[in-house]
Amino acid sequence: MYHKGIEGFPYFLGLRSLADIATRDDRVCVLNILGGESRQVTPTSHAFSGGNVVFGTSPGRGGQVLKTPVGDIPVFNNVREGLDAGHAFDTGVVYLPPSGVRDGVAELVRVNPGLRKIVIITEKISVHDAREIRAMAQANGIDIIGGNCLGVADSWNRVRIGGALGGDKPEESLLKGSVAIFSNSGGFTTTIAQYLGTAGWGTTTLVSSGKDVYIHYAAPDFAHAFGNDDRSKAAVLYAEPGGYYEQGIDWTKPVVACVVGRWKSKLTRAVGHAGAMAGTGDSAEDKERWFMEAFGVPGLFTPENPVVSAKGAVVTNIADIPAALTAVMALNGAAPDFAPRGDLALKPWVANDQGLRLPPELAMPAVTAPEPYAGQIAALGAQVGAVVARQNMKDKSGASVMDPKTQVTSVHGHSVLDLALEPLEATFALPLVHEIATENDRAILDVAVAAEVNLVGDPILVAADAAREAGNAPNAVMATAAAIVGPKRVERALGCTRALIGLFAHSGLRDGRDEEFDASGIVCDDATRALFLATEAEAADPRPEAMLAAIAARGGRSAFLKFLGGLGGRLSRDAILAAIATTIAWGPLMRKRISRLTAETLPWYLRLYGVMVGATIPGEHHRPGSLWGIPRDERFGQWTMADLCFLAMTGKKPTPEEALPLQMLVGLLISNGPGSISAQGAKGAVSADGPQTPARMQINKAMVGFLTHTGYSHGGNGYEGIAFLLEQFKETGLTDPADPAHGLDLKAMATAFAKRYRHEKKAAKELGAELRALPGVHHPVFKGKPINYDPRERFIAEYMARHGRYNVFHAFYRELVQALYEHEASPYVFCVNVDAVIAALLLALLWSDYQTGRLSERDLETAAFTVFLYGRMIGAAAEIDDHLNRGRNMDTRTPASACGFVV
């Protein structure tokens, strides 16, 4: 039977006025009341509306209740049970999944003759089901609102039915006034009401129409009810592309229409709201034109061009709605409903410019937030450094990530290809401050590490020499040294750092280099002062004065060193190391880029850097005041990290031409991602100590973990490459590897080897023997294409070509991979991998010393392994610090279910 509704409509419409949409007399039944969304929303709606929900349904959960602030709502298995229990209702709210909505509506209609309204919250209901729902409603004289909506609300009646209009505190947003709202967006329905409130406009009825393909209560229906509502003097419409609902409407009262979604006309499929993709003639531009014609305005309203008429205005930004409405209503002789409640100007509660100098229009001061947010923000402001949530870190890292396509690793957002071009000091600092260090910070870092390298008179040197004489590889020698740099060795330096951070944390200092900062208000008690000053036992140590002189000579600036200098006593080496570390860490710490724990442990890493580099130098070269014959003042005042590392490997200071390849090698080798063996060793050691109790963590032991997880396969491949190159070039008479006019026929050399290797490969196959691998050639990832490349090798090749540099060993490797393919020793052109780059660059650096006999093959082996360790030492520091901040106890342990037994 067809139910006749309002006269003049070609379909049933029972809602004659907006005042009838949500009233205090409505009694509500909620389908799927115990679902996730309803559990959150229904209690608030029920309480705000004075208890309008009589019962809900949830199949299989009958007898339960949904607790609300104004009493429990009973739950039944189905609608019939609720009605039989005496709970009458006239409005249904549907929270069912899309596939169940049609049957849910059918149940409501079938069992309740008194049903008058249904609000469908569910989104993405199929068009087929929506049509059947429409047919059922029309045949039975029922109004439907939705789907994909947030329900309806009435600010005069203080009622909300279905959904979350007004948010968790609807009384704060649903302010009684004279403006009705009809919106395709549920969330923006509330936002528009809040925006109107800032300009003094309250609301009457708010309808979230939804934006499924099929809108049941559409703009024409709203326009009729709006015209019959004496409370509503104006309306705001929020419209998205898709559908012709807004076309040709005769608006009888002023309207501001906000049309959005011009960008959606470029899409080929629906996004966001299911029906929000325009078809032909119903794009955002089309809807703007419909409204402009209805209102008699020639263009869009903007603050700069306020185009309005007495009938209305069209905007494209919801922030412009209050101003447009005020202008329209002024032409109608109407003022706002109440005094404005603020404005829509940006009012940041928190400001952090990350140290950038912003233009005035962007450098907005923070305002005090309302409670409880003001208290929370104050607590955050008092917090020093970042706080990172802990999680399982077994195969994860917050420090390094490898691009699965290029296999190039980044550390704290910086690709190792880029790091290869940075000074070593910058890469040594990066793992711990998460930023590329400034020139000032690099200079003082040089001094900090240089002060730790000379180990004369230290038991560390005795232990390292013993390990060396026992035939250990460089990693074991470095591990011996690192093992001794335990907590007591750094206890005072860490204490000084904690004290400096505590003293300056809330002083207002933003830049650790700012020596003009007024520190007169910082009070240092006697115990803290004593912590910074040298003891009588340290009187013979000349390094504190040498460090301060070197920093001054380099032009280094530090607010912390200046503060310590005013204490009136001789500073200890630990205090100076702490001041350097705090200077480097201060900016990132204040910007919350790093945690306080990272800043407080930085001296431990700096000391380990110096000791581990120093341990690679045989003990005979450590002398009081000099290292390998280089005086202390020169090393402290002039040398860089690259100089120190080159000295440790070769016994001499490099020229700038020699330092650059070493810098590039170390940069490329910093990390291979969290899954590499060396990274797992470091992470496992942190996990074993228990990162959730950081005071027990031994950073030196974690460094030992990295070192024990390196070896001739993972770390020593560079030497194998050097041994291979020596075999190819030993009888060639090569004098200068950097001279392109070397006179050698590299192609002929490569061809001869490729032919020999092909026969070797054939013989090994016949014998069932394992074929020897060619060091520096091939890679399990970069394979399968006709020509294969390792991006790290390509990076070096392109850099050298750009700067007119040449390396004969690198050039030979490139000829070799081509010859192997041409003479059928390989199925495609193998890549020259990064191990070959290590071998080629390092052998070129050391070639003249090797030719003269100054360096032996054993020295070359040690140098190749050591340069790998220098790079991975930096990467390990990144993983250790990251795991210490993020990890959980035992989180690198493999589950028993993932373990196997090999027979």
TrEMBL record:
UniProt-listed Gene3D superfamilies: NAD(P)-binding Rossmann-like Domain (3.40.50.720), Succinyl-CoA synthetase domains (3.40.50.261)
Q: Which PANTHER family match?
A: SUCCINATE--COA LIGASE [ADP_GDP-FORMING] SUBUNIT ALPHA, MITOCHONDRIAL, SUCCINYL-COA LIGASE SUBUNIT ALPHA
Transmembrane segment boundaries: none
The record, for SUPFAM superfamilies, names: Citrate synthase, NAD(P)-binding Rossmann-fold domains, Succinyl-CoA synthetase domains
| InterPro entries per record | Citrate_synthase_sf, CoA-bd, NAD(P)-bd_dom_sf, Succ_CoA_lig_flav_dom, Succinyl-CoA_synth-like
Which keywords appear in this protein's UniProt record, sorted alphabetically?
Answer: Plasmid, Tricarboxylic acid cycle
Q: Start and end of every CoA-binding domain? A: 50-123
What is the protein name given in its UniProt record?
CoA-binding protein
Question: What are the residue boundaries of the Succinyl-CoA synthetase-like flavodoxin domain, all occurrences included?
Answer: 176-282
Among Pfam families, the record links this protein to: CoA_binding, Succ_CoA_lig
